[in-house]
Amino acid sequence: MESNERIILFDGVCNLCNSSVQFVIKRDKEAKFKFASLQSSSGQALLQKFNLPLDQFNSFIYVHGDKVFLRSTGALKILKDLGGFWKLFYGFIIVPRFIRDFVYNYIAQNRYKFFGKRDSCMVPTPDLKKRFLE
Questions:
Q1: pTM of the prediction?
Q2: Rounded to whole angstroms, how far apart are CA atoms 91 and 72?
Q3: What is the DSSP string of 9-54?
C-alpha cells in the first residue's frame, strides 16, 4: 500500500453506504479515493491488516496510508481530504469523539431500517471499476 493511498471501506449492501460512496465519487475530481466493500477479499484483507473485526460491517472505514480511521473520525477525515467546501465540516472534530460516535453508531445500527438494503454489493460501471479494489 502506498503511503498516501486513500481507501474507503464500506458495507456493500447498505443503501446509505453506497450513496456515501457515490457522494465521494462525484466530488473527488482528482480520483484520490479508492473503494472496497467490507465483504470483499480486499476489504477483508485490510480489516485483517489493521486487526479489525472481519464480520462487523456497520462502520465506514477510512484507510489513509498506514493509518485507519473509524466511525465519525473517518467520515470527517474523508470530508477534509475531499477539499473545497467539504473540508469545513472537519471543524466538527472538536466535538468529543464519544458524542460524534454516539450519533454515528445510532445511524449505523439503524441504517437498513432507515435507508434500506440491497441484495448484493454495488457493481461499479466500467469507467469507475479502476477505482474499486477487487
A1: 0.87
A2: 12
A3: EE-TTBHHHHHHHHHHHHH-TT--EEEEETTSHHHHHHHHHTT--S
pLDDT digits (tens, 9 = 90+) for 92-117: 999 999 999 999 999 888 887 888 77
- Distance CA(101)–CA(104), nearest Å, equals 5
The answer to whether residues 43 and 37 touch, using CB atoms and an 8 Å cutoff, is yes
What radius of gyration, in Å, describes the C-alpha atoms of the chain? Answer: 14
In the Cβ-directed half-sphere of 48, how many Cα atoms lie within 13 Å?
7
HSE value, Cβ hemisphere, 13 Å, CA-based, for 69: 19
- Cα–Cα dist 89/45, whole Å: 30
* Burial of residue 19 (number of CB atoms within 10 Å: 0-12, 13-18, 19+): exposed
Cβ-contact 57, 9 below 8 angstroms: no
